[in-house]
Amino acid sequence: MTFLFETLERAALWVAGAALLVMGGIVTVSVVGRVAFNAPVPDDLIMVGLLMVAVILLPLAFIERTDGHIAVTVIADLLPVRVQALLRATGALLFAAFFGTMGFMVALKVPDEFTEALYYDGQLEVPTWPMKAVFAFGVALLVIRLAVRFVGACRSIVTGEPIKAPEKSDPDAASGHRG
Q1: What pTM, to 2 d.p., does this model score?
Q2: Ranges 32-41, 59-68, 76-85, 163-172: which has the least confidence
Q3: Domain segments of the chain: what residues?
């Protein structure tokens, strides 16, 4: 089960990277088209804005797993292990509640927007539901990862053992290379 979830996290990371490349391509082609032919890519700003959802949200679970986010722990590192674990558990719970609520509310809109064929105003009539589905999926991955983090922190509160170090200490594991 862990392998499957980590594979999903890595796949989401790769999709986010591909979305970033596509965004760069759209902007480049649009700028060249605007300057050289006076014809930019239609709805380029809408598409780039929508792809930004994938670029920002899809990697969040992977970043949480590898502790890749910015954290200032100067004071927290001096606290006892159980207190550190309590802080991590509280943070994971609050973060999951906040993002989970947002993701849930967005996910509720997806079926209606799909059946009503809603789209953004523009020449291409880009549908509204795909990136909302991506948003909900990215948030779901993050909430599951935060639940795993919460359980690990609760285990540390009970046992007093330090929380297992994230896999970023092993560069091969973070990159997916199993040499």
Answers
A1: 0.87
A2: 163-172
A3: 2-164
Q: How far apart are CA 11 and CA 96, in angstroms?
A: 21
Cβ burial, residue 179 (10 Å; 0-12/13-18/19+)? exposed
Other C-beta atoms within 10 Å of 104: how many?
13
119-141 pLDDT, tens digit each: 999 999 999 999 999 999 999 99
Among residues 57, 62, 43, which one has the least CA distance to residue 119? Answer: 43
Report the C-alpha gap between 45 and 19 in whole angstroms.
14
pLDDT in tens, 2-16: 899 999 999 999 999
Quote the tokens at residue 177. Answer: 């290379």
Look-up of token digits 């890749």 = 68
